[in-house]
Amino acid sequence: MSSIETIHVDGVWLPAASGETREVLDPADATTLQLVSEGGAEDADAAVAAARRAFDGGTGAWPRTAVAERSALLRRVADLLQRDREEIALIESRDTGKTLEEGRVDVDDVTNAFRYFADLVMNESGGRVVDAGSPDVHSIVVHEPVGVCALITPWNYPLLQASWKIAPALAAGNTFVIKPSEVTPLSTVHLVKLLVEAGLPAGVANIVTGAGLPVGQRLAEHPDVDLFSFTGGLVSGTKAGAAAVSGAKKIALELGGKNPNVVFADACATDEGFDTAVDQALNAAFIHSGQVCSAGARLIIEESVRDRFVSELARRAEKIKLGRGTEDGVECGPLVSQQQLDKVEAYVASALAEGAQLRCGGTRPKPSDVRPATGYFYAPTVLDGCHREMKVIREETFGPILTVETFSTEDEAVALANDTEYGLAGAVFSGDTARARRVAARLRHGTVWINDYHPYLPQAEWGGFGKSGIGRELGPAGLDEYRESKHIYENLRPEPVRWFAG
What we know:
This protein is of the alpha/beta class. The chain has helices at residues 41-56, 67-83, 85-96, 100-122, 158-172, 186-197, 212-221, 234-246, 271-286, 306-318, 338-353, 391-394, 410-418, 433-442, 475-480; strands at residues 3-4, 7-9, 12-14, 21-26, 31-37, 128-129, 137-145, 148-152, 175-179, 205-207, 227-231, 250-254, 260-263, 298-302, 357-360, 381-384, 401-407, 425-429, 447-450, 469-470, 483-491.
């Protein structure tokens, strides 16, 4: 299989400086999907230099391009995404293992993000007027782009996470270098091609495909990078973030979550309510085989309905159809890699050793139950009788594992939900609106759903408390991450101050 050039620097597609390539695997059958350029520190340096030139250039440089022109380019990109919707969805499905329909939803969400930031930057005023207390002073606060942005994205939602960074970065007038996960780089490569097709000047958008070491680390520590934005795991994110902070860079980190889904008995008081709560618990935990930073992997259920609820949940989980994401009727695809499959198996084994009760799953499917049988598949798993001391409760498993904890009082439910180092997302299911809102207000998580799970809006901020990260993406704050505030104080009637007598 011939390799494709996936390093884009200063408007040119290139092989890696070293000439090395990497196999991108299809997780559904463990075969080679594509050979891509395997970049290194030298490629990262070249990309940063190109982004620096594009930012620091003359009057026609991207940061000094009219806001209307930047907004129009983002809209052209959105249109191109919809033109290529089926192609990109297929790339995303084959590369990550998710279903084709999930891939289509991702493309639509990415389109909405580009359109949102195009509108947001166009609808802003020319600056915030500050009352200086004198008619002889004109004082305003304006926003300017940060500069060269290094963007690191994860393997589970490569296209979506790229858009959450690229769209506001470009809207604000920045240039960037993006490093997608080496496991799933293909849709980000396609997105950069669309940026070029839409007319983005050379050097504004650069991509280097390769491993976190050395590419990601070099971008984090590079002296010519002004902002470092990372989405991924806690360990690698904090390490890269420390390197970025040491260079006094602006940083934004989204580091995952261990997310509670709190279900009160009154949510299950009717057959319809019970059915909805069970269905949403499945959706929370098993979409994309649980490989979601906001997955509702911790079911916290009121004791009085626990037996009925968990029994029905396990019954339905056993019926989830596994297979290649492009096949009709498939509801869950494989895990992304052998490494991730091994990790999930280890978490289940540790939970069982610590006393958890296996209600369903807990194993790879039989070869006769899934096609193709050589993929990285793992059966949706429900672990009952879990408690806070278990590793599977404390750590982000990033797989199709749902743990069950119980409570008897509202205060106990809140305490359990907040008993985590993370704080990205969570949900409350209750038939009592006052209770649901009261509990939602007490949860220390960046996004809280009431009687729902997983929807997000590009106009609403996304990010977490605690070890879930620093900063916010999406919404007005998501644009502000990529800007610096500048105060301009103008004296309309200058005269001597006479502070010094001489």
